[in-house]
TrEMBL record:
Species for this entry: Billgrantia kenyensis
Name of encoding gene: dapB
Catalysed transformations (reactions): (S)-2,3,4,5-tetrahydrodipicolinate + NADP(+) + H2O = (2S,4S)-4-hydroxy-2,3,4,5-tetrahydrodipicolinate + NADPH + H(+); (S)-2,3,4,5-tetrahydrodipicolinate + NAD(+) + H2O = (2S,4S)-4-hydroxy-2,3,4,5-tetrahydrodipicolinate + NADH + H(+)
Keyword Oxidoreductase annotated: yes
Sorted UniProt keywords: Amino-acid biosynthesis, Cytoplasm, Diaminopimelate biosynthesis, Lysine biosynthesis, NAD, NADP, Oxidoreductase
Chain positions recorded as NAD(+) binding sites: G8, V9, A10, G11, R12, M13, E35, G98, T99, T100, A122, P123, N124, M125
InterPro entries in alphabetical order: DapB_C (IPR022663), DapB_N (IPR000846), DapB_N_CS (IPR022664), DHDPR_bac (IPR023940), NAD(P)-bd_dom_sf (IPR036291)
Domain Dihydrodipicolinate reductase N-terminal, chain residue ranges per copy: 3-125
Name of the protein: 4-hydroxy-tetrahydrodipicolinate reductase
Top-level lineage group: Bacteria
Major site of localization recorded for this protein: cytoplasm
GO MF annotation terms: 4-hydroxy-tetrahydrodipicolinate reductase; NAD binding; NADP binding; oxidoreductase activity, acting on CH or CH2 groups, NAD or NADP as acceptor
PROSITE patterns: DAPB
Family the entry assigns: Belongs to the DapB family.
Length: 268
């Protein structure tokens, strides 16, 4: 049985993760962490998640539950996640990280932990999205250098703080890698005013932020006469949460290293 603690347990994903752990026969809820000084410290995490009392009180520091858990699931913010990686490396824990919006420097810092603990880092934990990444690789290889323009379009709820989404960037990276391109050179993240005709090799990104959209991604391959669109739509955060719990069970048996959902799902 994998003992799981959830950091950011009062957040949108945190509350959903409590539900997903409770539903998983191979995992047990070992703790929940809220922000230091939060008035929610001491609250029952089952009640926070709308499940009724589970007998596990939220704490506001990892130290308080250091002996209680094996794997930490973290869907918070970049600097919080990096601090938690240091804690888990020092205490022999494993991690599943869903936090997005890390800068280049923050990603390099995260990567530096690959020899210190086993951890899964993925901008999207849904099984469907990870299969979609495989489909995109195939489509890009067949179409990308044959006159098809590639555009990535994503939509999320009004509270999302980073843009484009980590998933949209991952989709762009997969397509770029399949075509020997890079997002640094070929990614186009803004088109305003007289920006001229499209470069055939560019990979464009467009972002929608509105209402309560959980997460929608489309990659379009368009040429004269036809257009192929590969779309994934998440209708509930439970899809990400279930993937994260599956990753936690999986990473419990791995040796030190940085892994992705493709590894967890055996699609690597
Ligand atoms: P949210 O704002 O609802 O939740 C984040 C929570 O983290 C908040 O409750 C906040 O209080 C808490 N927090 C902040 N600092 C903390 C600290 N030091 N200790 C403990 N808790 C702390 O946001 P959300 O919608 O749940 O998303 C969180 C992150 O997960 C974002 O980066 C989002 O993009 C990402 N996300 C990833 C996936 C995926 O599949 N990988 C899916 C959905 C969201």
């Amino acid at each position: 049985m994998t003992r799981i603690a959830i950091v950011g347990v009062a957040g949108r994903m945190g509350r959903t993760l409590v539900n997903a752990v409770q539903e998983d026969a191979g995992a047990t809820l070992a703790g929940g962490i809220v922000e230091p000084g939060s008035s929610l410290a001491g609250a029952d995490i089952g009640e926070l998640a709308g499940l009724g009392k589970l007998g596990v009180a939220a704490v506001d520091s990892l130290d308080a539950i250091a002996d209680d858990f094996d794997v930490l699931i973290d869907f918070t913010a970049p600097q919080v996640t990096l601090a938690n990686l240091a804690f888990c490396a020092a205490h022999g824990k494993r991690m599943v990280i869903g936090t997005t919006g890390l800068s280049g420097d923050e990603l390099a810092e995260l990567d530096g932990y690959h020899g210190q603990l086993p951890f899964v880092f993925a901008p999207n934990m849904s099984v469907g999205v990870n299969l979609t990444l495989k489909l995109l690789e195939t489509a890009a290889r067949a179409l990308g250098d044959e006159g098809y323009d590639i555009e990535v379009i994503e939509a999320h709820h009004r509270h999302k703080v980073d843009s484009p989404s980590g998933t949209a960037l991952k989709m762009g990276e997969v397509v770029a890698a399949a075509l020997d391109r890079t997002l640094k050179e070929h990614g186009v993240f803004e088109r305003v005013g007289q920006c001229g005709p499209r470069d055939p090799k560019e990979i464009g990104f467009a972002t929608v932020r509105a209402g309560d959209i959980v997460g929608e991604h489309t990659v379009m391959f368009a040429t004269e006469g036809e257009r192929i669109e590969i779309t994934h739509k998440a209708s509930s955060r439970m899809t990400f949460a279930k993937g994260a719990v599956r990753a936690a069970r999986w990473v419990a048996d791995q040796s030190n290293g940085r892994y992705g959902m493709q590894d967890v799902l055996g699609l690597g």
